[in-house]
Amino acid sequence: MANCNAAFFEYIRELNLTDTQFEKLQTSRDALLRKISDKFKSEARTIPVFASQGSYALDTINRPISDNFDLDHGVYLVHVPDGTALSVTDAFNLIIKAVEGQTALPLGDMPTCVRVRYKRAADDTPAHHVDLAVYRQYSNGKREFAHKVKGWLPTDQKGFIDLFKRQASIADQLRPLVRVFKGWSDYNGSKPGSVKFPSGFHFTVCAMECLSSSAQRLDQAFVGTADRILGRMRAQGAGTGSPFLRPVAPYEDIFLDYDWARRQGIVAQFEHLVREGGRALAEADLARAQRIWRELLGERFPAPPEVKLENPDRVWAAPAILGRSDKAG
């Protein structure tokens, strides 16, 4: 069996943001937080509490194929007295008014966040965006998430981040596996006609629940974890398995909003991954195994090394044998 563990970690390095991209995200985020703070201060409101979230906080951030990279950050409104009503629209508008005009591009109309978009910079830094999720925080520490469609929802971002970090500290393959699943999704989801893949959050929860570690073999762990996820999805579709639940409040089925066609499309993608990944694991030749993984994960997965002939100009062939057959014609 070919061991592609080293190639997998080389692939993960290819998924890293460049130093310039990483610094650009931090600079853009910090400028937005200052602008929000200044706006609230000028209006005699208590400055919100800010907290990192998403892949940046989990250290599972990837550089997308489109190069339109992003960062998520939470804005917790603490200026409203506990007994005072605050609508989701008003909460969003407080942040929108604070950050509008920060860039030349209009704000993205998102149901779950205020998206601040940045175009390609003069230093050729690709376009990127910062998603500002809006929360309300009460004096007893209770927090609610602002959703334009669903209203105020219970939330525990900190609890989720802490839970992931505890599990990742015990299972050192969890974090790289999440990044590989996200890379697989990015590559295959960008193909024309592809099903819409789950978000990075969905892959994170699935990997946490279905982790199949394999000592010193990330390739085996990837296929094993994918197979467990597939089994759970099939069982849930058949009505015999438990759903994937958010492990913190509000503890909802994370695939609840997916229709049947999308669920089946995702199952089909996992079936292909498990089948072809299993073929790569069974392959004795390392170069052939890497080619299979490259077909699954895209050109950012390392290509097998070229075989160089010692004497490329000398091509030997067996000589032709001339003669008469003993068979009757």
- State Rg: 25 Å
Count of helical stretches:
10
What is the strand tally? 7
Which structural class do you get from the secondary structure elements?
alpha+beta
Q: Any idea what the CATH architecture of the largest domain is?
A: Orthogonal Bundle
* Helix fraction bin: 40-55%
CATH topology-level name of the largest domain: Poly(a)-polymerase, middle domain
| Name of the level-1 CATH class of the largest domain | Mainly Alpha
The percent range for strand residues is 5-15%
| End-to-end distance | 49 Å
Number of spatially distinct domains: 2
Order of helices and strands: HHEHEHEEEEEHHHHHH
Q: Which regions contain 5 or more consecutive residues with pLDDT less than 50? A: 314-329
Q: Taking all residues together, what is the mean pLDDT?
A: 92
The rough form would be described as globular
Main pleated sheet: 7 strands, mixed
Walk me through the structure.
This protein has helices spanning 5-14, 19-42, 54-58, 88-99, 157-170, 174-189, 200-210, 218-237, 260-282, 286-297, and strands at 49-53, 69-77, 108-109, 114-118, 128-137, 143-147, 151-154. With 329 residues, the chain is an alpha+beta fold. It has 2 domains: 5-12 and 161-297, Poly(a)-polymerase, middle domain; 16-155, Beta Polymerase, domain 2 (2-Layer Sandwich), CATH 3.30.460.90. Strands 1, 2, 3, 4, 5, 6 and 7 form a 7-stranded mixed beta sheet that branches. Strand 5 and strand 6 (143-147) form a beta hairpin.
